[in-house]
Design brief:
single chain; TIM Barrel; 8-stranded parallel β-sheet; alpha/beta; binds zinc ion; 9 helices; 212 residues; binds D-xylitol-5-phosphate
């Protein structure tokens, strides 16, 4: 089974994003994971619409936007216009996940739903036929460089068992060359990794170690 690698730019050099994006492109990354935080849903603030707009101009990689924000529905159109290809929102951040999924699809993008470490997988079973991707967080969202929470990985086979064949199951948080294998052996087929890739001496080798 092929794995979609989505390097998280959160640990890249923000003063030289183009350089870092080209490195992961050359190393075989398929997507770019862009972490958007609002200081409300998570206790941190990162980047937003103008940065996605600029990144869109310099790469053809799939822009995988992970919204860790309240009221994600208000930001679907701006991120779509900026060039996002896929938007993942948090189940915990919304009242009506089905409405947000439908808004993302109406904007012409792929839709993902994410659950935090303390959210049961059962909460999202009813949406598995509507979304394109489920993001299982393997750390508390908010910061890069945290340790993988092993218990979260047990959600992967539960979701996989209920999901249609085409559903992408992505993991995010504490992914390295060891934890990636745990996740893919349980059924994950998309890996997000930030610090493991961008803090590496050899970014190319780090990416390749996740793909093989
Ligand atoms: C955390 C973000 C992640 C983060 C992962 O809230 O959603 O995408 O960048 O960073 P690492 O790979 O360092 O755990
Ligand atoms: Zn993320």
């Amino acid at each position: 089974m092929s794995v979609i690698l989505s390097p998280s730019l959160l640990s890249a050099n923000f003063a030289n994003l183009e350089h870092d994006i080209k490195l992961v492109e050359e190393a075989g990354a398929d997507w770019l994971h862009i972490d958007v935080m609002d200081g409300h849903f998570v206790p941190n603030i990162t980047i937003g619409i103008p940065v996605v707009n600029s990144i869109r101009k310099i790469t053809n990689l799939v822009l995988d936007v992970h919204l860790m924000i309240e009221n994600p529905a208000n930001f679907i159109t701006p991120f779509a216009k900026a060039g996002a290809d896929l938007i993942t929102f948090h189940y915990e951040a919304v009242e009506e996940p089905a409405e947000v999924i439908s808004l993302i699809h109406k904007a012409g993008l792929k839709a993902g739903i994410s659950i935090k470490p303390n959210t049961e997988p059962e909460s999202i079973y009813q949406y598995l036929n509507d979304v394109d991707l489920v993001l299982v967080m393997t750390v508390e969202p908010g910061f890069g460089g945290q340790s993988f929470i092993h218990e979260c990985a047990s959600k992967i086979p539960l979701i996989k068992e209920k999901a249609p064949e085409k559903l992408i199951i992505q993991v995010d948080g504490g992914i390295n060359n060891v934890t990636s294998k745990i996740c893919t052996s349980l059924g994950a087929n998309s890996l997000v990794a930030g610090s493991y890739i961008f803090n590496a001496e050899d970014i190319d080798a780090a990416c390749r170690s996740l793909l093989h």
